Structure formats: C-alpha cells, structure tokens
Amino acid sequence: MPAGLLSLPFILLSAVWLYLAWEVDGAYATYLIPNVIILALLYTFSPQINWWWYRRYPPEPPKVLWPLLERFAFYSTLSPEEKQRFRQRVALFNMSQEFMPQGVEAVPDDLKLVIGGCAVQLTFYQEDFLFPKFENIVLYPKPFPTPQYPTQFHTSEIYEEDGVVLLSAEPLMRALMEPRQYYQIGLHEYAKVFRLKYPDLDWPDLPADTWELLQGVSGFSKEAIHKYINLEEVELFPVSVSLFFTFPDRFRELLPGLYESYAGIFGWTKSVS
C-alpha cells in the first residue's frame, strides 16, 4: 500500500534514533518525536492516501479473471481503451467495499469481480462511479434468510438503513455463465442502489404490461423471477434494468422507448449489441 511505503523510511529512521538513544545518549530520544508524529499521521490518513494514489494510478483485476468480464453483454462491446477503464473501475470499486462473507472464510476474487462488474456497468458513464452509501456487501453461498425476511430463503436484498447489499454467490455466478437460464441478481440489486443515488433522474413510468414484454426479452416470466428471488414483492423497475443490460438487443426490439430512456439515464453513447 502507498501509505505503508511512505511509512517505511520513518520506521527505519525511528529504529536508528531508538538505537542511538539506548546505546549512545538518551538525548537522541527527542529525535523520535517528529517521526512518531509523522507515522501517526500516515496511519490516520492512510485510507485517503491510498485512495488518492490508486485514483491516479488505478490497478486492474488479475489478468486471469478478465475473460469473466467478457460474459457481460455491456463489457463485450467496449473498445480496448474502455475495457481497460472498466477493469480499473471494477478494481477501485472493490477496494472501496467491505466484503462480509457468511458461511465461508473469504470472498474469492472471481466473485468480487462479478459483483464489481455488475455495479460498474450502471455507473460506467458517470464521473462518480461509486455508491458511498452502500459500501457493505454480505455474501452467502446460497439463498438466505435475514431479519427483514426471517422465514424466506431469498437470493438478494438491499438494506438501505445500513447501506448493505446482500447477495447469494451461487445464483450470481450462474447468471453470469448462463444468462438465459438464470436471472442476474447483481444487476437487480445495484439498479435499486443506483436509483437511490440518483432519484431525480427522468425515470420512466413502467405500465403493468411491461412484465409481459420483459418475458419476451428474456424468457423469464414475472412468476419465475419472483420465485427465483423468493420475496413477496419484486419490483418491476430493477427487473427491467437487469434485463436491459443482459439482453440489450432484444430489449431494444421489444421496448424501444424504454430502451432509449435507459440508454439516456445510464449514459450510453452508442448502441450496445
């Protein structure tokens, strides 16, 4: 980490002054004071220092994981330069998150990549691509109950009061690998987060018959999506956004007006095919 590298010379210098104070003259101990102050400041502001550095010199996910991103319809249409920018944003997004695995010791890198990819798709054309009010991600291996829904094992949820996104790993990864067989819950939940961040955008009205058209886009019926997420009420809005990103061509064909609205909202400057 950059802050750690900045601290290293002051740590070494402190060791020298400590040695001299112990072995030669105790007066050398006074030289420790500015080093300790600097080290304390570096420690206190290390998150800001690290973020400042990585924003200017953004990292990328491990190259071995890049092919996973190609499975996102949106990413696969980007230019090489845009793909690099997307990867960098995914890496930065994941650095800003607190991942909290449940039932496993750690969140694997491929799963972090997919979660970051879902979020960054929505904000790719925004200058501010983060969701500062939702920086906690709880990951379960399979469907799970929560205090809000203690008797329902569901696949995804957001909890606005604590800024938490809750996801089930297995259906999330299956949707990436087989989008025509499994619904993309990552896009579903981050669509809700995006609208909470930008409530004043020109969000279109969604008539009830939109459900039928969306079934034509994806093959997923309203009942199937409800059963898959397994909550009493699943909003039409995040479903429409998830399918907009997953099946853009078919979406444009069946819902051209809604396609244009979402293309404007999410900043698309070209057709996604």
- What is the SS-derived class? alpha/beta
Number of domains: 2
Indicate the radius of gyration in whole angstroms: 23 Å
Amount of helix? 55-70%
CATH level 1 class label of the largest domain: Alpha Beta
Structure, explained:
The chain folds into 2 domains: 2-55, no CATH class; 58-265, Collagenase (Catalytic Domain), CATH 3.40.390. The model has no long low-confidence stretch (mean pLDDT 87). The chain is α/β, with parallel strands linked by helices and 273 residues long. The protein is elongated and about 85 Å long. Helix content is 56%, strand content 7%. It has helices spanning 2-23, 32-44, 46-56, 66-69, 73-76, 80-95, 109-123, 169-177, 185-197, 210-218, 222-229, 236-246, 248-254, 256-265, and strands spanning 98-101, 136-140, 156-159, 164-168. Strands 1-2-4-3 form a 4-stranded mixed beta sheet. Helix 6 packs across helix 7, helix 7 packs across helix 9 and helix 10 (210-218) runs parallel beside helix 12 (236-246). A hairpin with a 4-residue loop joins strand 3 (156-159) and strand 4 (164-168).
Summary, kept brief:
The protein is α/β, with parallel strands linked by helices and 273 residues long. 56% of the residues lie in helices and 7% in strands. The protein has helices spanning 2-23, 32-44, 46-56, 66-69, 73-76, 80-95, 109-123, 169-177, 185-197, 210-218, 222-229, 236-246, 248-254, 256-265; strands at 98-101, 136-140, 156-159, 164-168.
Keywords:
273 residues; Collagenase (Catalytic Domain); 2 domains; 4-stranded mixed sheet; 14 helices; 4 strands; elongated
